[in-house]
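Recall from the previous chapter that SMILES is a line notation for molecules. Here it describes pyridoxal-5'-phosphate.
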Amino acid sequence: MKDRKLLMIPGPVEFTPEVMQAMGMPTTSHLAPNFIEVFGQALERLRDVFLCPAGQPFVVAGSGSLAMDMAAANLVEVGDAALVVNTGYFSDRFGAILERYGAQVTHVRAAAVGGAPTLEEVEAALNAGRYKLMTITHVDTSTAVVADVKGLAALGRKYGTLVVVDGVCSVAGEALRQEEWGVDLVLTASQKALGTPPGLALVMAGPRALEAFRRRSTPVGCYYADWTNWLPIMEAYEARKPAYYGTPPVNLIWALNVSLGQILEEGMEPRCARHRRLSNAFKAAMGALGLKQVPLSPELAATTLTAVYYPEGVDGGALLGYIGAAGVILAGGLHPEIRTRYFRIGHMGAVSPSDILVTVGAIERGLAQAGYSFEAGVGLAAAQAALIR
Ligand SMILES: *Cc1c(COP(=O)(O)O)cnc(C)c1O
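With both inputs in hand, we obtain:
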């Protein structure tokens, strides 16, 4: 029997064979003409993926947290006020990073885990203070709650606040039109919906974000993340010229460029529609199995992942073990208030309808082993019906 397991966690995700092939190529010099061409092309393609024609992309070795750090380090000066639209664990992390650079941070929190602050609540906060920037976690991977980036960004514009979006679990999966929606900075990481192995931090800075960086009166507090060091490098690669600051992860950038090509070939709208269709099918299956989701309403539920409470009386650790043995790796909980009570399924990137059915099938077999009583196949039938519809 084949023993390869399907990885259905919210990052890293399953990658296409072409992307993995790029990872295994002989590593070239970071100054080799063919690598310069690939890096330059990847930077150009990122503007199309972020839908930000006037943006400045930054691609550096690091994880998504470094991308958050880079945004905060370059935009915040000591004493700046920042508003965090808080939908969970990763919003808390952004608050902590901003504070590390000296920001005065105010959180507008969801009333309950699985909720999101309303536009009215965020506007009241913006009205009560003068914020240099606000952060939004597009999809908080701890709750699977999706934020209304379009509506929130419009508020940011109205109040003259820089709008920064943590799109680590959304870019190239969830609809996000950076420039059209007036978002000043979007950041992500390679291993989620961008479909490239972990190791790249990506930032797309719009004109107002770069302007705020240029107007700083104090140096950036993190040497590695400082755009002063990275901007000339990104500009050089795009101009197809050699430049060096820190050695780029050559194979990862090669793989990123392959993945970006595949993403753009699929098209941003069809890609988001595919994520929505597969997410709806998966969520229908969970509903049919009688499992409750963490987001408090369907409108708050992300399409890149699903967060589901364990059924009453089922041991979560054991269940994930059974599902793993049935061939699918899922993730446990992350939000500190409910960590042991729920699990998470990532369905982003190259995910297919068949992956959804395999995952639902493994969950059903795991639930049966865990002693949960349900009619075998109801989840599969619901997912299949949604996929066929
Ligand atoms: C995964 C994730 C991060 C952190 O990314 P790392 O690559 O693990 O550092 C930040 N924000 C969100 C929304 C995420 O999903």
